[in-house]
Design goal:
Distance between the termini of chain A: 50 Å
Strand content of chain B: under 5%
CATH architecture of the largest domain in chain B: Orthogonal Bundle
CATH superfamily of the largest domain in chain A: MetI-like
CATH topology of the largest domain in chain A: MetI-like fold
Strand order of the largest sheet of chain B: 1-2
Number of domains of chain B: 2
Number of strands of chain B: 2
Oligomer: heterodimer
CATH class of the largest domain in chain B: Mainly Alpha
CATH topology of the largest domain in chain B: MetI-like fold
Number of helices of chain B: 13
Shape of chain A: globular
CATH architecture of the largest domain in chain A: Orthogonal Bundle
Number of helices of chain A: 16
Radius of gyration of chain B: 24 Å
Chain lengths: 290, 289
Protein backbone atom coordinates (compact mmCIF):
# COMPACT_ATOMS: atom_id res chain seq x y z
CA UNK A 1 0.00 0.00 0.00
CA UNK A 2 1.30 3.43 -0.94
CA UNK A 3 0.86 6.47 1.25
CA UNK A 4 -1.83 7.89 -1.05
CA UNK A 5 -4.00 4.80 -0.82
CA UNK A 6 -3.63 4.79 2.96
CA UNK A 7 -4.67 8.45 3.04
CA UNK A 8 -7.57 7.78 0.64
CA UNK A 9 -8.72 4.79 2.67
CA UNK A 10 -8.47 6.74 5.88
CA UNK A 11 -10.71 9.52 4.63
CA UNK A 12 -13.56 7.02 4.52
CA UNK A 13 -13.00 5.85 8.07
CA UNK A 14 -14.87 7.73 10.75
CA UNK A 15 -12.76 10.01 12.89
CA UNK A 16 -12.80 7.87 16.01
CA UNK A 17 -11.80 4.66 14.18
CA UNK A 18 -9.04 6.53 12.38
CA UNK A 19 -7.58 7.61 15.70
CA UNK A 20 -7.74 3.96 16.72
CA UNK A 21 -5.88 2.85 13.59
CA UNK A 22 -3.18 5.46 14.12
CA UNK A 23 -2.87 4.35 17.72
CA UNK A 24 -2.44 0.72 16.76
CA UNK A 25 0.08 1.43 14.04
CA UNK A 26 2.09 3.54 16.47
CA UNK A 27 1.75 0.78 19.07
CA UNK A 28 3.10 -1.96 16.81
CA UNK A 29 5.95 0.32 15.66
CA UNK A 30 6.99 0.84 19.30
CA UNK A 31 6.73 -2.83 20.25
CA UNK A 32 8.68 -3.88 17.15
CA UNK A 33 11.39 -1.38 18.04
CA UNK A 34 11.59 -2.70 21.60
CA UNK A 35 11.68 -6.29 20.35
CA UNK A 36 14.54 -5.28 18.06
CA UNK A 37 16.40 -4.04 21.14
CA UNK A 38 16.07 -7.53 22.57
CA UNK A 39 17.07 -9.37 19.37
CA UNK A 40 19.87 -7.28 17.91
CA UNK A 41 22.48 -8.15 20.57
CA UNK A 42 21.99 -11.88 19.99
CA UNK A 43 21.89 -11.64 16.20
CA UNK A 44 24.96 -9.42 16.19
CA UNK A 45 26.80 -11.92 18.39
CA UNK A 46 25.80 -14.80 16.15
CA UNK A 47 26.96 -13.09 12.94
CA UNK A 48 30.20 -11.90 14.56
CA UNK A 49 31.01 -15.50 15.47
CA UNK A 50 31.24 -16.18 11.71
CA UNK A 51 33.54 -13.23 11.01
CA UNK A 52 37.29 -13.06 10.65
CA UNK A 53 39.15 -11.20 13.40
CA UNK A 54 39.80 -8.00 11.35
CA UNK A 55 36.19 -8.05 10.11
CA UNK A 56 34.92 -8.23 13.73
CA UNK A 57 36.10 -4.62 14.17
CA UNK A 58 33.64 -3.49 11.46
CA UNK A 59 30.19 -2.64 12.68
CA UNK A 60 28.32 -4.76 10.13
CA UNK A 61 25.74 -7.50 10.47
CA UNK A 62 26.92 -9.56 7.48
CA UNK A 63 30.31 -11.28 7.79
CA UNK A 64 32.64 -10.58 4.92
CA UNK A 65 33.97 -13.16 4.29
CA UNK A 66 32.07 -15.88 6.20
CA UNK A 67 34.29 -18.18 8.21
CA UNK A 68 33.90 -20.84 10.90
CA UNK A 69 37.42 -20.31 12.18
CA UNK A 70 36.18 -18.78 15.47
CA UNK A 71 34.11 -21.89 16.16
CA UNK A 72 36.94 -24.12 15.05
CA UNK A 73 39.42 -22.40 17.39
CA UNK A 74 37.34 -22.62 20.56
CA UNK A 75 36.58 -26.25 19.75
CA UNK A 76 40.15 -27.34 19.13
CA UNK A 77 42.41 -24.88 20.96
CA UNK A 78 40.41 -23.65 23.96
CA UNK A 79 38.85 -26.95 24.94
CA UNK A 80 35.20 -25.90 24.90
CA UNK A 81 34.49 -29.61 24.34
CA UNK A 82 35.58 -30.31 27.92
CA UNK A 83 33.69 -27.31 29.33
CA UNK A 84 30.44 -28.41 27.68
CA UNK A 85 30.96 -31.97 28.88
CA UNK A 86 31.56 -30.76 32.46
CA UNK A 87 28.55 -28.45 32.44
CA UNK A 88 26.24 -31.13 31.06
CA UNK A 89 27.56 -33.66 33.58
CA UNK A 90 27.03 -31.37 36.58
CA UNK A 91 23.62 -30.15 35.40
CA UNK A 92 22.38 -33.70 34.82
CA UNK A 93 23.70 -35.13 38.11
CA UNK A 94 22.48 -32.20 40.21
CA UNK A 95 19.06 -32.27 38.53
CA UNK A 96 18.61 -36.03 39.01
CA UNK A 97 19.65 -35.81 42.67
CA UNK A 98 17.22 -32.95 43.22
CA UNK A 99 14.33 -34.87 41.66
CA UNK A 100 14.98 -37.95 43.76
CA UNK A 101 15.84 -36.36 47.10
CA UNK A 102 13.48 -33.40 46.70
CA UNK A 103 10.70 -35.79 45.71
CA UNK A 104 11.42 -38.24 48.54
CA UNK A 105 11.66 -35.49 51.17
CA UNK A 106 8.73 -33.57 49.70
CA UNK A 107 6.58 -36.71 49.78
CA UNK A 108 7.46 -37.47 53.41
CA UNK A 109 6.70 -33.88 54.48
CA UNK A 110 3.43 -33.93 52.55
CA UNK A 111 2.04 -37.33 53.57
CA UNK A 112 3.96 -39.34 56.17
CA UNK A 113 3.40 -38.66 59.86
CA UNK A 114 6.42 -38.61 62.15
CA UNK A 115 7.23 -36.73 65.35
CA UNK A 116 9.03 -33.42 64.74
CA UNK A 117 7.81 -33.16 61.15
CA UNK A 118 6.65 -29.54 61.43
CA UNK A 119 9.83 -28.48 63.19
CA UNK A 120 12.05 -30.12 60.57
CA UNK A 121 10.00 -28.53 57.80
CA UNK A 122 10.52 -25.10 59.36
CA UNK A 123 14.25 -25.83 59.32
CA UNK A 124 14.01 -26.64 55.60
CA UNK A 125 12.25 -23.36 54.88
CA UNK A 126 14.71 -21.46 57.07
CA UNK A 127 17.61 -22.49 54.83
CA UNK A 128 16.17 -20.32 52.04
CA UNK A 129 17.08 -17.32 54.22
CA UNK A 130 20.82 -18.18 54.42
CA UNK A 131 22.52 -16.33 51.56
CA UNK A 132 25.39 -17.83 49.55
CA UNK A 133 27.65 -14.93 50.53
CA UNK A 134 27.46 -15.95 54.18
CA UNK A 135 27.88 -19.68 53.44
CA UNK A 136 30.81 -19.09 51.12
CA UNK A 137 33.69 -19.05 53.62
CA UNK A 138 32.53 -21.84 55.98
CA UNK A 139 31.51 -24.14 53.11
CA UNK A 140 34.85 -23.51 51.39
CA UNK A 141 36.74 -24.27 54.62
CA UNK A 142 34.73 -27.46 55.19
CA UNK A 143 35.22 -28.73 51.64
CA UNK A 144 38.93 -27.90 51.84
CA UNK A 145 39.25 -29.94 55.02
CA UNK A 146 37.51 -32.84 53.31
CA UNK A 147 39.70 -32.51 50.17
CA UNK A 148 36.64 -31.79 48.02
CA UNK A 149 37.91 -28.58 46.39
CA UNK A 150 38.85 -28.76 42.72
CA UNK A 151 36.74 -31.82 41.95
CA UNK A 152 33.10 -32.33 41.07
CA UNK A 153 32.07 -34.21 44.22
CA UNK A 154 32.22 -31.07 46.36
CA UNK A 155 29.97 -29.17 43.98
CA UNK A 156 27.50 -32.05 43.73
CA UNK A 157 27.49 -32.57 47.50
CA UNK A 158 26.48 -29.00 48.33
CA UNK A 159 23.83 -29.04 45.57
CA UNK A 160 22.34 -32.51 46.25
CA UNK A 161 18.96 -31.02 47.07
CA UNK A 162 17.70 -27.47 47.55
CA UNK A 163 14.98 -26.34 49.92
CA UNK A 164 13.16 -24.64 47.04
CA UNK A 165 12.90 -27.91 45.10
CA UNK A 166 11.83 -29.93 48.13
CA UNK A 167 9.19 -27.32 48.98
CA UNK A 168 8.00 -27.27 45.39
CA UNK A 169 7.61 -31.08 45.28
CA UNK A 170 5.80 -31.11 48.65
CA UNK A 171 3.30 -28.52 47.44
CA UNK A 172 2.58 -30.66 44.39
CA UNK A 173 2.15 -33.89 46.38
CA UNK A 174 -0.36 -32.12 48.61
CA UNK A 175 -2.62 -31.61 45.57
CA UNK A 176 -2.70 -35.33 44.62
CA UNK A 177 -5.81 -37.15 46.00
CA UNK A 178 -5.08 -39.73 48.70
CA UNK A 179 -7.08 -42.44 46.87
CA UNK A 180 -4.03 -43.47 44.86
CA UNK A 181 -1.96 -44.24 47.95
CA UNK A 182 -4.82 -46.03 49.66
CA UNK A 183 -5.27 -48.27 46.63
CA UNK A 184 -1.54 -49.00 46.65
CA UNK A 185 -1.69 -49.78 50.36
CA UNK A 186 -4.51 -52.30 49.78
CA UNK A 187 -2.31 -53.96 47.20
CA UNK A 188 0.31 -54.31 49.91
CA UNK A 189 2.82 -51.79 48.53
CA UNK A 190 5.32 -50.41 51.04
CA UNK A 191 6.09 -46.72 51.53
CA UNK A 192 9.01 -46.59 49.14
CA UNK A 193 7.20 -48.57 46.46
CA UNK A 194 4.17 -46.26 46.77
CA UNK A 195 6.43 -43.25 46.36
CA UNK A 196 8.48 -44.67 43.51
CA UNK A 197 5.76 -46.43 41.49
CA UNK A 198 2.67 -44.31 42.21
CA UNK A 199 3.45 -40.83 43.54
CA UNK A 200 6.56 -39.90 41.55
CA UNK A 201 4.94 -40.73 38.18
CA UNK A 202 1.86 -38.72 39.21
CA UNK A 203 4.10 -35.75 39.95
CA UNK A 204 5.42 -35.64 36.40
CA UNK A 205 4.27 -32.04 35.73
CA UNK A 206 6.12 -30.84 38.84
CA UNK A 207 9.17 -32.90 37.90
CA UNK A 208 9.25 -31.38 34.43
CA UNK A 209 9.23 -27.88 35.87
CA UNK A 210 11.93 -28.84 38.37
CA UNK A 211 14.12 -30.40 35.66
CA UNK A 212 13.94 -27.32 33.48
CA UNK A 213 14.57 -24.76 36.20
CA UNK A 214 17.32 -26.78 37.94
CA UNK A 215 19.13 -27.59 34.69
CA UNK A 216 19.08 -23.93 33.77
CA UNK A 217 20.26 -22.91 37.24
CA UNK A 218 23.22 -25.30 37.25
CA UNK A 219 24.16 -24.62 33.63
CA UNK A 220 24.24 -20.85 34.29
CA UNK A 221 25.85 -21.07 37.73
CA UNK A 222 29.05 -19.04 37.87
CA UNK A 223 29.63 -18.28 41.55
CA UNK A 224 30.14 -21.76 43.04
CA UNK A 225 32.10 -23.25 40.11
CA UNK A 226 34.38 -20.20 40.31
CA UNK A 227 34.94 -20.79 44.02
CA UNK A 228 35.36 -24.57 43.76
CA UNK A 229 37.18 -25.09 40.42
CA UNK A 230 38.26 -21.57 39.50
CA UNK A 231 41.69 -21.71 41.11
CA UNK A 232 43.61 -22.90 38.08
CA UNK A 233 41.75 -26.13 37.47
CA UNK A 234 40.91 -25.95 33.72
CA UNK A 235 40.06 -29.66 33.43
CA UNK A 236 37.06 -28.98 35.69
CA UNK A 237 35.95 -25.70 34.13
CA UNK A 238 32.27 -25.40 33.31
CA UNK A 239 31.13 -23.56 30.19
CA UNK A 240 30.64 -20.35 32.18
CA UNK A 241 34.14 -20.52 33.68
CA UNK A 242 35.64 -21.36 30.29
CA UNK A 243 33.90 -18.41 28.68
CA UNK A 244 35.03 -16.06 31.45
CA UNK A 245 38.59 -17.35 31.07
CA UNK A 246 38.50 -16.85 27.30
CA UNK A 247 37.32 -13.30 27.97
CA UNK A 248 40.11 -12.58 30.42
CA UNK A 249 42.92 -14.17 28.41
CA UNK A 250 41.97 -13.28 24.87
CA UNK A 251 39.62 -10.31 25.28
CA UNK A 252 40.00 -9.12 21.70
CA UNK A 253 39.30 -12.39 19.89
CA UNK A 254 35.71 -11.35 19.24
CA UNK A 255 34.70 -14.14 16.82
CA UNK A 256 35.86 -16.80 19.31
CA UNK A 257 34.28 -15.00 22.27
CA UNK A 258 30.99 -14.58 20.41
CA UNK A 259 30.97 -18.27 19.44
CA UNK A 260 31.63 -19.19 23.09
CA UNK A 261 28.77 -16.95 24.26
CA UNK A 262 26.40 -18.58 21.78
CA UNK A 263 27.35 -22.02 23.12
CA UNK A 264 26.73 -20.84 26.70
CA UNK A 265 23.27 -19.55 25.73
CA UNK A 266 22.06 -22.06 23.14
CA UNK A 267 21.00 -25.06 25.30
CA UNK A 268 18.95 -22.78 27.53
CA UNK A 269 17.37 -21.13 24.48
CA UNK A 270 16.41 -24.55 23.14
CA UNK A 271 14.89 -25.64 26.45
CA UNK A 272 13.13 -22.30 26.78
CA UNK A 273 11.57 -22.52 23.34
CA UNK A 274 10.35 -26.06 24.03
CA UNK A 275 9.05 -25.52 27.57
CA UNK A 276 8.26 -21.82 27.88
CA UNK A 277 5.19 -22.25 30.03
CA UNK A 278 7.20 -23.92 32.80
CA UNK A 279 9.57 -20.99 33.04
CA UNK A 280 6.82 -18.42 32.98
CA UNK A 281 4.49 -20.17 35.42
CA UNK A 282 7.48 -20.89 37.69
CA UNK A 283 8.29 -17.19 37.95
CA UNK A 284 4.69 -16.18 38.47
CA UNK A 285 4.06 -18.77 41.19
CA UNK A 286 7.23 -17.60 42.97
CA UNK A 287 5.70 -14.13 42.80
CA UNK A 288 2.42 -15.25 44.29
CA UNK A 289 4.23 -17.14 47.03
CA UNK A 290 6.24 -14.08 48.07
CA UNK B 1 -1.71 -50.18 65.22
CA UNK B 2 1.17 -48.72 67.20
CA UNK B 3 3.50 -50.85 65.14
CA UNK B 4 2.09 -49.35 61.92
CA UNK B 5 2.62 -45.82 63.25
CA UNK B 6 6.19 -46.54 64.26
CA UNK B 7 6.79 -48.07 60.86
CA UNK B 8 5.39 -44.96 59.12
CA UNK B 9 7.52 -42.65 61.26
CA UNK B 10 10.57 -44.78 60.50
CA UNK B 11 10.04 -44.47 56.77
CA UNK B 12 9.31 -40.74 57.17
CA UNK B 13 12.68 -40.16 58.88
CA UNK B 14 14.35 -42.37 56.29
CA UNK B 15 12.95 -40.26 53.45
CA UNK B 16 13.99 -36.91 54.90
CA UNK B 17 17.34 -37.88 56.40
CA UNK B 18 19.53 -37.02 53.39
CA UNK B 19 17.89 -33.62 52.70
CA UNK B 20 18.02 -32.75 56.41
CA UNK B 21 21.71 -33.70 56.64
CA UNK B 22 22.49 -31.63 53.50
CA UNK B 23 20.61 -28.60 54.82
CA UNK B 24 22.09 -28.95 58.28
CA UNK B 25 25.62 -29.41 57.02
CA UNK B 26 25.67 -26.78 54.26
CA UNK B 27 23.18 -24.16 55.47
CA UNK B 28 22.50 -24.26 59.21
CA UNK B 29 25.94 -25.22 60.44
CA UNK B 30 27.76 -22.76 58.09
CA UNK B 31 25.58 -19.98 59.49
CA UNK B 32 27.14 -20.49 62.90
CA UNK B 33 30.55 -21.45 61.52
CA UNK B 34 30.73 -18.17 59.56
CA UNK B 35 30.20 -16.26 62.81
CA UNK B 36 32.86 -18.40 64.52
CA UNK B 37 35.45 -17.88 61.75
CA UNK B 38 34.81 -14.14 61.77
CA UNK B 39 36.19 -13.92 65.33
CA UNK B 40 39.55 -15.51 64.45
CA UNK B 41 42.64 -14.81 62.39
CA UNK B 42 41.99 -17.49 59.81
CA UNK B 43 44.31 -18.00 56.86
CA UNK B 44 44.91 -20.56 54.14
CA UNK B 45 46.29 -23.00 56.74
CA UNK B 46 43.27 -22.61 58.99
CA UNK B 47 42.70 -21.04 62.36
CA UNK B 48 45.61 -19.29 64.01
CA UNK B 49 45.97 -19.67 67.75
CA UNK B 50 44.29 -17.02 69.87
CA UNK B 51 41.04 -15.27 69.12
CA UNK B 52 40.85 -12.08 67.11
CA UNK B 53 37.99 -10.62 69.10
CA UNK B 54 36.25 -7.97 67.03
CA UNK B 55 39.44 -7.22 65.10
CA UNK B 56 38.01 -8.40 61.74
CA UNK B 57 34.81 -6.44 62.16
CA UNK B 58 36.70 -3.26 63.07
CA UNK B 59 38.91 -3.82 60.04
CA UNK B 60 36.00 -4.30 57.64
CA UNK B 61 34.08 -1.34 58.98
CA UNK B 62 37.12 0.95 58.66
CA UNK B 63 38.42 -0.45 55.38
CA UNK B 64 38.19 2.26 52.67
CA UNK B 65 37.94 -0.50 50.02
CA UNK B 66 34.86 -1.93 51.75
CA UNK B 67 33.41 1.59 51.92
CA UNK B 68 33.94 1.95 48.18
CA UNK B 69 32.34 -1.46 47.62
CA UNK B 70 29.27 -0.49 49.65
CA UNK B 71 29.05 2.91 47.96
CA UNK B 72 29.29 1.29 44.51
CA UNK B 73 26.61 -1.29 45.21
CA UNK B 74 24.26 1.31 46.73
CA UNK B 75 24.65 3.54 43.67
CA UNK B 76 24.03 0.53 41.48
CA UNK B 77 20.95 -0.53 43.48
CA UNK B 78 19.45 2.97 43.47
CA UNK B 79 19.92 3.03 39.70
CA UNK B 80 19.00 -0.48 38.64
CA UNK B 81 15.91 -1.17 40.76
CA UNK B 82 13.69 1.78 39.65
CA UNK B 83 14.89 1.41 36.07
CA UNK B 84 14.08 -2.33 35.99
CA UNK B 85 10.68 -1.68 37.55
CA UNK B 86 9.86 1.09 35.06
CA UNK B 87 10.96 -1.06 32.12
CA UNK B 88 9.17 -4.14 33.45
CA UNK B 89 5.94 -2.23 34.05
CA UNK B 90 6.07 -0.63 30.58
CA UNK B 91 6.61 -4.03 28.94
CA UNK B 92 3.80 -5.55 31.03
CA UNK B 93 1.39 -2.79 29.99
CA UNK B 94 2.26 -3.41 26.34
CA UNK B 95 1.93 -7.20 26.62
CA UNK B 96 -1.33 -6.88 28.54
CA UNK B 97 -3.02 -5.31 25.47
CA UNK B 98 -4.91 -7.37 22.93
CA UNK B 99 -2.08 -7.61 20.42
CA UNK B 100 -1.02 -10.14 17.84
CA UNK B 101 1.99 -12.22 18.81
CA UNK B 102 1.54 -11.56 22.51
CA UNK B 103 3.27 -14.79 23.59
CA UNK B 104 6.09 -14.20 21.17
CA UNK B 105 6.86 -10.75 22.54
CA UNK B 106 6.49 -11.94 26.11
CA UNK B 107 9.05 -14.71 25.50
CA UNK B 108 11.40 -12.37 23.65
CA UNK B 109 11.40 -9.88 26.53
CA UNK B 110 11.81 -12.59 29.15
CA UNK B 111 14.61 -14.61 27.54
CA UNK B 112 17.56 -12.42 28.69
CA UNK B 113 16.48 -13.10 32.31
CA UNK B 114 17.23 -16.80 32.04
CA UNK B 115 20.29 -16.68 29.77
CA UNK B 116 23.75 -17.07 31.30
CA UNK B 117 24.94 -13.89 33.03
CA UNK B 118 28.49 -14.56 31.87
CA UNK B 119 27.45 -14.80 28.20
CA UNK B 120 25.16 -11.74 28.40
CA UNK B 121 27.93 -9.70 30.04
CA UNK B 122 30.40 -10.91 27.42
CA UNK B 123 28.07 -9.79 24.64
CA UNK B 124 27.65 -6.41 26.36
CA UNK B 125 31.45 -6.02 26.53
CA UNK B 126 31.56 -6.50 22.77
CA UNK B 127 28.69 -4.16 21.94
CA UNK B 128 29.81 -1.41 24.35
CA UNK B 129 33.55 -1.49 23.66
CA UNK B 130 35.25 1.70 22.44
CA UNK B 131 34.78 0.77 18.77
CA UNK B 132 31.62 -1.26 19.26
CA UNK B 133 28.10 -1.19 17.88
CA UNK B 134 26.69 1.13 20.56
CA UNK B 135 29.36 3.81 20.17
CA UNK B 136 29.03 3.53 16.41
CA UNK B 137 25.31 4.38 16.70
CA UNK B 138 25.68 7.28 19.14
CA UNK B 139 28.96 8.55 17.64
CA UNK B 140 31.13 8.21 20.76
CA UNK B 141 34.38 6.43 21.69
CA UNK B 142 33.72 5.86 25.40
CA UNK B 143 34.91 2.45 26.65
CA UNK B 144 31.81 2.14 28.86
CA UNK B 145 32.92 -0.90 30.84
CA UNK B 146 36.61 0.02 31.15
CA UNK B 147 36.05 3.54 32.43
CA UNK B 148 35.71 4.18 36.18
CA UNK B 149 32.98 6.88 36.00
CA UNK B 150 30.78 4.93 33.56
CA UNK B 151 31.26 1.25 34.41
CA UNK B 152 28.67 0.95 37.22
CA UNK B 153 26.10 2.81 35.13
CA UNK B 154 26.85 0.55 32.19
CA UNK B 155 26.11 -2.44 34.46
CA UNK B 156 22.93 -0.67 35.59
CA UNK B 157 21.87 -0.39 31.94
CA UNK B 158 22.86 -3.97 31.18
CA UNK B 159 21.10 -5.55 34.16
CA UNK B 160 17.93 -3.52 33.89
CA UNK B 161 17.71 -4.72 30.29
CA UNK B 162 18.40 -8.32 31.38
CA UNK B 163 15.95 -8.49 34.27
CA UNK B 164 13.16 -6.27 32.91
CA UNK B 165 11.51 -9.44 31.60
CA UNK B 166 11.22 -10.94 35.09
CA UNK B 167 9.71 -7.72 36.46
CA UNK B 168 7.37 -7.77 33.45
CA UNK B 169 6.07 -11.24 34.40
CA UNK B 170 5.41 -10.19 38.02
CA UNK B 171 3.59 -7.06 36.84
CA UNK B 172 1.61 -9.04 34.27
CA UNK B 173 0.34 -11.40 36.97
CA UNK B 174 -0.62 -8.40 39.09
CA UNK B 175 -2.29 -6.58 36.18
CA UNK B 176 -4.37 -9.63 35.39
CA UNK B 177 -5.61 -9.81 38.98
CA UNK B 178 -7.12 -6.30 38.81
CA UNK B 179 -10.88 -6.72 38.40
CA UNK B 180 -12.18 -5.34 35.09
CA UNK B 181 -15.14 -3.51 36.64
CA UNK B 182 -12.69 -0.90 37.97
CA UNK B 183 -11.83 -0.05 34.37
CA UNK B 184 -15.44 -0.18 33.28
CA UNK B 185 -16.26 2.45 35.91
CA UNK B 186 -13.42 4.61 34.61
CA UNK B 187 -14.69 4.19 31.03
CA UNK B 188 -18.16 5.28 32.10
CA UNK B 189 -16.66 8.39 33.67
CA UNK B 190 -14.81 8.98 30.39
CA UNK B 191 -11.44 9.05 32.13
CA UNK B 192 -8.49 9.21 29.71
CA UNK B 193 -6.03 6.30 29.41
CA UNK B 194 -3.18 8.24 30.99
CA UNK B 195 -5.26 9.36 33.95
CA UNK B 196 -6.75 5.88 34.37
CA UNK B 197 -3.22 4.46 34.58
CA UNK B 198 -1.93 6.90 37.20
CA UNK B 199 -5.12 7.14 39.24
CA UNK B 200 -6.25 3.50 39.12
CA UNK B 201 -3.78 0.96 37.74
CA UNK B 202 -0.58 2.26 39.34
CA UNK B 203 -1.95 2.46 42.92
CA UNK B 204 -3.63 -0.95 42.58
CA UNK B 205 -0.25 -2.46 41.68
CA UNK B 206 1.18 -1.50 45.05
CA UNK B 207 1.70 -5.07 46.34
CA UNK B 208 3.57 -5.90 43.12
CA UNK B 209 5.69 -2.74 43.43
CA UNK B 210 6.77 -3.70 46.93
CA UNK B 211 7.40 -7.33 46.10
CA UNK B 212 9.58 -6.42 43.13
CA UNK B 213 11.34 -3.71 45.13
CA UNK B 214 12.30 -6.20 47.85
CA UNK B 215 13.32 -9.04 45.54
CA UNK B 216 15.28 -6.91 43.08
CA UNK B 217 16.72 -4.72 45.82
CA UNK B 218 18.21 -7.72 47.62
CA UNK B 219 19.42 -9.18 44.33
CA UNK B 220 21.10 -5.87 43.44
CA UNK B 221 22.97 -5.71 46.75
CA UNK B 222 24.54 -9.11 45.90
CA UNK B 223 25.92 -7.95 42.54
CA UNK B 224 28.91 -10.09 41.58
CA UNK B 225 28.98 -11.90 38.20
CA UNK B 226 28.81 -8.81 35.98
CA UNK B 227 31.30 -6.84 38.10
CA UNK B 228 33.66 -9.81 38.00
CA UNK B 229 33.46 -10.33 34.23
CA UNK B 230 33.80 -6.69 33.14
CA UNK B 231 36.85 -6.15 35.36
CA UNK B 232 38.64 -9.41 34.47
CA UNK B 233 38.10 -10.48 38.08
CA UNK B 234 40.12 -7.54 39.40
CA UNK B 235 37.47 -5.02 40.48
CA UNK B 236 39.05 -2.18 38.54
CA UNK B 237 39.55 0.38 37.17
CA UNK B 238 40.43 1.98 40.49
CA UNK B 239 38.05 -0.18 42.61
CA UNK B 240 35.08 1.08 40.59
CA UNK B 241 33.59 -2.42 40.19
CA UNK B 242 34.17 -3.55 43.79
CA UNK B 243 30.95 -4.72 45.43
CA UNK B 244 30.59 -6.27 48.91
CA UNK B 245 30.39 -9.80 47.45
CA UNK B 246 33.39 -9.02 45.28
CA UNK B 247 35.22 -7.78 48.39
CA UNK B 248 34.43 -11.07 50.16
CA UNK B 249 35.69 -13.05 47.15
CA UNK B 250 38.94 -11.09 46.82
CA UNK B 251 39.62 -11.09 50.56
CA UNK B 252 39.17 -14.84 50.70
CA UNK B 253 40.88 -15.93 47.49
CA UNK B 254 43.62 -13.40 46.77
CA UNK B 255 44.67 -12.32 50.26
CA UNK B 256 43.45 -15.57 51.89
CA UNK B 257 42.11 -13.76 54.92
CA UNK B 258 39.12 -15.98 55.65
CA UNK B 259 38.44 -14.33 59.02
CA UNK B 260 38.08 -10.91 57.41
CA UNK B 261 36.03 -12.32 54.50
CA UNK B 262 33.68 -14.12 56.91
CA UNK B 263 33.12 -10.93 58.90
CA UNK B 264 32.38 -9.02 55.66
CA UNK B 265 29.86 -11.77 54.85
CA UNK B 266 28.20 -11.31 58.23
CA UNK B 267 28.08 -7.51 57.76
CA UNK B 268 26.49 -7.92 54.32
CA UNK B 269 23.99 -10.42 55.70
CA UNK B 270 23.02 -8.01 58.49
CA UNK B 271 22.56 -5.14 56.01
CA UNK B 272 20.36 -7.25 53.73
CA UNK B 273 18.40 -8.74 56.61
CA UNK B 274 17.78 -5.29 58.14
CA UNK B 275 16.58 -3.89 54.81
CA UNK B 276 14.27 -6.89 54.33
CA UNK B 277 12.81 -6.35 57.80
CA UNK B 278 12.32 -2.62 57.24
CA UNK B 279 10.66 -3.25 53.91
CA UNK B 280 8.50 -6.08 55.25
CA UNK B 281 7.36 -3.93 58.18
CA UNK B 282 6.54 -0.88 56.05
CA UNK B 283 4.79 -3.04 53.46
CA UNK B 284 2.81 -4.78 56.21
CA UNK B 285 1.69 -1.47 57.65
CA UNK B 286 0.77 0.02 54.28
CA UNK B 287 -1.15 -3.10 53.34
CA UNK B 288 -3.09 -3.01 56.58
CA UNK B 289 -4.11 0.64 56.26
Amino acid sequence: MTLQTVAAAESFIPRRARAEVTRRVFFYAVIALVALLFFVPFIYTLTTSFKTLPDAANVTFIPHPWTTSGWHTIWTQYDFKTYIKNSVFLAVVVTVCNIFLGGLGGYAFARLKFPGRELLFLLVLGTIMVPDQLRLIPVFVMLTNWHLIGNFSGYILINLVTATNLFFMRQYFLTIPKDFEEAAKLDGAGYFKTFWRIMLPLALPAISALVILQFQGTWNDFFWPLILFGQGNPAHYTIQLGLAELNFQYGVLWPEICAGSIIAILPILAIFLAFQRYFISGVVSAGVKG
Amino acid sequence: MLGARIREAGWGYGFVVVPIVVFGLFFVYPFGYALYISFFHWGILGKQSGGAGTFNYAKVIHDPVFHTAVKNVLEYTVGVVPLTMALGLSLALVINQKIHGRNFFRSAFYFPSIASSVAITTIALYIFNANGLFNHIIGSRTPWFQNAPTVMWAIVGLNSWTSAGTAMLYYLAALQSIPTDVYEAAAVDNTGAWRTFWKITFPLLRPAHFFILVVFGIGALKLFDQAFIVSNGLGGPNYSTYTPVFYIYRTAFTTFDFGLAASAGVVLFVIIFALTLVQRLTVGRQEAS
